[in-house]
């Protein structure tokens, strides 16, 4: 194995180890607070921090290093801070409360395992950044610009969706109701849609690099998580239990990709 490849594996492994330690510390905190929701913000912050970590230990040209260092960091800071303030001071998110109820006496151990599974998925999602960081040449200017455009669209779209939902929930008259305003009129989860677009933004940076095809894994993993695991299934199960009109919302509104609602 050559030196650069060994360094790449070392950088990736140390990033993984760092997340294991951080998520274990968060797990220890939630043992006292009984609120596992803090992991949502920490997940975004730590995943975003992997960008600068890979950039600082990169063999790529400077323009690629700047992009993989800054873009994920800004994404992580925005989303993590939003999630922190959304959850701080409130009761535990219904998804985690439901897991505690299902797990019973084994909840502490299973919650630690659940947190470590999130670390595994974080590292899979970071593959695109890791691959781009180890290239020796720069992508064509068109791919660099495409990466930036996709990133801007994703950040703006997700931030707008989050703001629209927060404004809807802030109105006491909307308590127990379903947000169908703005982007939420065209998708039940526009924030999730733009989240996937965000991870597509790093594919152009890895095109032409050795193992560049691995950059397709992050958006696929994110789509799987949001569509099949902890995203839409858990969120909609909770919404269906607490909001009577959610069944009609499901019938008329696209689950993921924004589209015109059914009549």
Automatic annotation (TrEMBL):
<keyword id="KW-0812">Transmembrane</keyword>
<dbReference type="InterPro" id="IPR010721">
    <property type="entry name" value="UstE-like"/>
</dbReference>
<feature type="transmembrane region" description="Helical">
    <location>
        <begin position="66"/>
        <end position="85"/>
    </location>
</feature>
<feature type="transmembrane region" description="Helical">
    <location>
        <begin position="36"/>
        <end position="54"/>
    </location>
</feature>
<feature type="transmembrane region" description="Helical">
    <location>
        <begin position="6"/>
        <end position="29"/>
    </location>
</feature>
<feature type="transmembrane region" description="Helical">
    <location>
        <begin position="142"/>
        <end position="161"/>
    </location>
</feature>
<keyword id="KW-0472">Membrane</keyword>
<keyword id="KW-1133">Transmembrane helix</keyword>
<feature type="transmembrane region" description="Helical">
    <location>
        <begin position="109"/>
        <end position="130"/>
    </location>
</feature>
<dbReference type="Pfam" id="PF06966">
    <property type="entry name" value="DUF1295"/>
</dbReference>
<protein>
    <submittedName>
        <fullName>DUF1295 domain-containing protein</fullName>
    </submittedName>
</protein>
